[in-house]
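Can't paste images in this forum, so I'm doing it all in text. The chain is below; anyone willing to post the predicted structure tokens underneath?
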Amino acid sequence: MTPLQCVVLSAYALLSPTTHPSRQVIEQATRHRALTPTAKRVAVTLAEHAGLMERGRLTEFGRMAAKAHLKRLNGQGSGA
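Text version of the structure:
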């Protein structure tokens, strides 16, 4: 998972209720991907330039991208 994906998914997880199943999937996927503060800032900047985030918050495009990536994560978990 790239730092950009990690940042977008983490922001998406914050929008989900703590009991929502997608939040658990995201937390498992990002658990081993600890970003340094510098890497996180770079990833957020890239996400903003790509239109996925605005002022540190997910845009609608970012939500759609997070949902699409979440489907791929769920597919990997159920297919293995």
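The radius of gyration is 12 Å. The mean pLDDT is 86.
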